[in-house]
Specification:
Number of strands of chain A: 8
Number of helices of chain B: 9
Oligomer: heterodimer
Radius of gyration of chain A: 17 Å
Strand order of the largest sheet of chain A: 5-6-7-3-8
Order of helices and strands of chain B: HHHHHHHHH
Chain lengths: 205, 217
């Protein structure tokens, strides 16, 4: 993938001898990798192997037990990344449009709510309250953050969960577009998402 | 729209829209204060002497009920993860949530204290001071309450725990607020309340944000 695009300082991530623990139990040790702009890294491993913990550690929510994570060309890593976890972060009584408005304000930066809604097939659902969305629609709304406020690093935890074939295709499209712009994507997956990974990381024993 | 305005608007919409979360504490406050004259009987002098400070007790308990879900919902549904990725510091986002709570719950409750105080036989000339004291007192309660809500965000049914944590810190505003309601040293008591509210709003969000960062782990 080309590394040219709108993300001017094209952050890279490097992990050196990373080890993480959860609840006192070591999940994996001495994991090293480097992610370049345009990279798409699939993280694989069984249930409980530490995929989510790895992503939450990279996002800065958890402290690694050992080793280090280096963000190059990103002064404040938490402002250069998006984290899409298992929970969608939706409020049942608020509409799709009000979620988009809230995230646009919360994440700051360039905002394209209309584009985000369109790319994830939400345009017809804007006035619907989040509690009336299906699981797949709620997941699409959660993924719309990625397009809504452009940030170079995407950390995705099983992003295709609950998505139909159409939703998976949309996800693959935005991932490809993001890589073409020099962004980088790390996704924990059980099934391939579609785009060809530049690297596969296997965590756990 | 900045992150703080967005947070404020979202929390206000959550409290006033749909579930009606802001009406319950108001109903509790009015119900509790209206029952006092019934319980104390028809002795007007007794009520005039003991009644007015009770608006403060009712107000403290009413705001307590709103604290349990303040951060717990954000922790459970993943919203807290998003707040940590905002360009605005978590301390200010927490303050914006507190401000929304003050507007949605504190403000109506302070205004409702006017009829409540009259029902409790407060002298009419004292009513504006009581309303003003509760406007300040609600800010103090919320500043303190943010910390209790953040510390217990990960605890299921943490309501009782929140009460144990914050009620001791509610004591100073209640002492000076009751002085206002009782008509003693009104000006001085209001100044102390204002100082306490400012301190709680300055320090509460810092402590609450620190607790929330631990909750995100």
């Amino acid at each position: 993938m080309s590394a040219s695009g709108p993300f001017q300082d094209k952050p890279k991530i490097r992990a050196d001898a990373l080890s993480v623990a959860r609840g006192g139990r070591v999940l994996f040790e001495s994991l090293s990798f480097a992610a370049e702009p345009g990279a798409y890294i699939e993280i694989r491993g069984g249930n409980g192997a530490g995929k989510t913990t790895l992503l939450r550690t990279l996002a800065g929510y958890l402290k690694p037990r050992g080793g280090q994570i280096v963000f190059e060309n990103a002064e404040e890593p938490s402002l250069a990344l998006h984290f899409v976890g298992h929970q969608n972060g939706l409020k049942p009584t608020l509409s799709v449009a009000s979620h988009l408005r809230y995230w646009a304000g919360l994440f700051g930066g360039a905002i394209n709510a209309g584009v985000a809604a369109e790319k994830l097939g939400l345009s017809a659902l804007l006035e619907r309250a989040a509690r009336t969305l299906s699981q797949g629609q709620a997941r699409r709304l959660s993924l719309s953050r990625l397009v809504l406020a452009p940030r170079p690093i995407w950390l995705l935890d099983e992003p295709a969960a609950a998505l139909d074939a159409n939703g998976k295709a949309m996800l693959a499209t935005i991932i490809d577009a993001h890589r073409a712009e020099g962004g980088l994507v790390l996704a924990a997956v059980h099934e391939p998402l579609g785009p060809t990974p530049s690297q596969t990381l296997t965590v756990g024993v | 729209m900045s992150a703080l305005v967005a947070t404020f608007r979202r929390d206000l919409a959550l409290m006033w829209g749909g579930g009606g979360g802001a009406l319950a504490p108001l109903g509790f406050f009015l119900g509790a204060t209206m029952l006092v004259p019934l319980a104390m009987g028809p002795e007007r002098n007794l009520l005039a002497a003991a009644g007015p400070p009770l608006v403060w007790i009712a107000a403290a308990l009413a705001v307590l009920a709103t604290l349990e879900r303040l951060f717990q919902a954000d922790l459970e549904d993943g919203s807290l993860d998003h707040m940590l990725l905002s360009p605005e510091p978590l301390e200010l986002i927490v303050l914006a949530k507190g401000a929304a709570l003050w507007v949605a719950v504190g403000l109506p409750l302070a205004l409702a204290s006017a009829p409540a105080a009259i029902a409790l036989q407060a002298p009419p000339e004292l009513v504006p001071a009581i309303v003003l004291s509760l406007l300040l007192g609600m800010a103090a309660f919320i500043g303190i309450g943010l910390v209790g809500a953040a510390v217990t965000a990960g605890v299921k049914r943490g309501g009782v725990l929140i009460a144990l944590i914050v009620l001791p810190f509610f004591a100073p505003p209640i002492i000076f607020g009751s002085a206002v309601a009782g008509g003693e040293h009104v000006g001085a008591a209001l100044s102390v309340l204002a100082g306490f509210a400012l301190a709680a709003l300055a320090l509460g969000p810092i402590a609450a944000a620190a607790a929330l960062r631990l909750q995100a782990e």
